[in-house]
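Thread: Modeling a multi-component assembly for a lab meeting

Hi all, long-time lurker, first post. My supervisor asked me to bring a structural picture of a complex we are working on to next week's group meeting, and I have zero experience with this. I have the sequence lines for every component (640 residues in total). Could someone generate the structure of the whole assembly? Inputs are pasted exactly as I received them:
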Amino acid sequence: MRAGKLITPLTLVVVTAFVILIPMERSGWVISLDRGVIPFLAAFLTTVAIFAILALALNVQWGYTGVFNFGVAAFFMVGAYTAAIFVKGPPEEGSSLRYVGGFGEALSPPILDSEQWLPFVIAALAAGAVSGLLALALSLPTLRLREDYLAITTIGVAELLRRIVIQEDGLVNGSRSLVGIPKPLSGYFSSDTERFVDLAVMAVLVMIVFLIVERGIRSPWGRVLRALKEDEVAAAASGKNVFSFKMQGFVIGAVIMGMGGAFFAFNRGAVGPTTFDHFFATFMIWAMLMVGGSGNNWGAIAGAYVVWGFWTTTLQINGYDLPDVLQSRIFYIRDFVVGSLIVIVLLLRPQGLFPEERRVSIWLDHRMRRGPRPADDATAEAET
Amino acid sequence: MTPILQVDRLTKSFGGVLAVNNCSLTISEGTITGLIGPNGAGKTTLFNLITGAEKPNAGRIRFRGRRIDGLAPHRIFHHGIIRTFQVPRELKTMTVLENLMLVPAGQRGEQIWNPLLFPGSVARQEQRNYDKAMDVLDFVELSHHRDEFASSLSGGQKKLLELARTLMCDPKLILLDEPGAGVNRVLMQKLVTKIELLREQLGVTIFIIEHDMDLVSRLCDPVIVMSEGAYLAEGTIDEVKRDERVLDAYLGGQYR
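Re: Modeling a multi-component assembly
Sure thing. I ran the full set together rather than chain by chain. Output:
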């Protein structure tokens, strides 16, 4: 078990070395604010933050409520597109871009530079709301089913919605992607400093989501969620409305996912249906949560960092002078390498880098202790 | 005596098996009623029907005059009925303390906005529930295991945790499914004392399935006998022990 515990720092160190050293080497060891490793890290960490929000959302659903959502892509996509049509202006006459909505200008009254931020705030909230409503609609027929049926349903819904986006050309520009999504605060900063502003904003947003989720989960509300994840019959026998709490966990997770989708859309400036295939938009986020540690919010964030770190740096290897036999296959090898890393981490540390903790209520950690703390850590050792 | 629970011609079948067959019985308020019967008599199924874990095929259940058959388990809990499970259903990856703190009804912190917006009021309620849980843990002698995962308890300790759950709320009727099985003698004596105390102090009605005749004869009056899914006999333990039909049911009639 000692070896298992070493995996956590080891993995974090290896990923950190990758994300620092490979871009440094690629840029010829230049340290500068406008090129090389530092802008890379800013952009990298911004993306990690967006995925961390998605992983935190999935953690609410799976890690704490036990709702098996295998259609993360659906909520991610709905959030991203909703946000996009809320911040874009109306479609231009004669333009090849065809989409509904385009409320951006309507949402920015000419005061306080509101076009720089107000549509984005409203769009993120709308993304959360639409995604939450989708979860609500799905939960009514499916949440009473066993969890594997919910997994099948959510996979189906994710693919169905993606097909609708592709086929219904006029909805959000179909398979040609919806481009030209404006960036928040873009009028204030040069493109060099903008990266760092993006990072700061996303860091704050992750922190807010983390604190809200953490507080909710370590409250009596979170205790009920964990109880019904463990045993629905026992939770019901203690007077808990299993269906209602499951739905709350599912919907709240979906709201956060939708907002994560919105931040993704603002960050990328363009969203297309290929982004939201199962591999990228569902499996990737599951991998983050499993590697990081399902049932642990720090784990969700660390998982986003580790998985995205491996994913991005393995792409950079492409820039090296590789033998032809590898060059043409690098994208497939990359899938293979990232998959193997996930398997290795999980074999050595099945509960993830940051395993689930044993106490839920935050109020039990400080004020409420009565008498000496029992030999807690000794038994924890014995169990793991 | 006023009836608190009336079961009226209740039937439940699983496939072709009639687990509970046209069963009618009445529990009087303030009693400790025993439920005995041979294995497979339908005792646990009856408990499942009363607490909503299973839905009856036919028949009625009235609790203090109001029908509760077919209601969801959590609604029946809020009527004031709590049960324990024959095979303990402890929440394995939650600590012993959390297992108990889950139970109290009306926790403000269970509405998601309260912990976010009114942490103070949630904390005060948690403090009260914590104190209560610690008292209950002291009573069942599980205080030392407070912060361990419930899965690490022994079989007997899990039984005690089940009983402890019922002490965390203020029920009107407690259904105990074999509370004595796997519990040591000394603890059993304490159990008996506490169950009697519960009845005297809180006026709780208790309905117990038990195979341990020692425990039944010390606690239960009256005792109801079930056989093949139906009500068979009722009386003091001595009365039912002498009842021909009961002997038949237990022994198959060959000793007559």
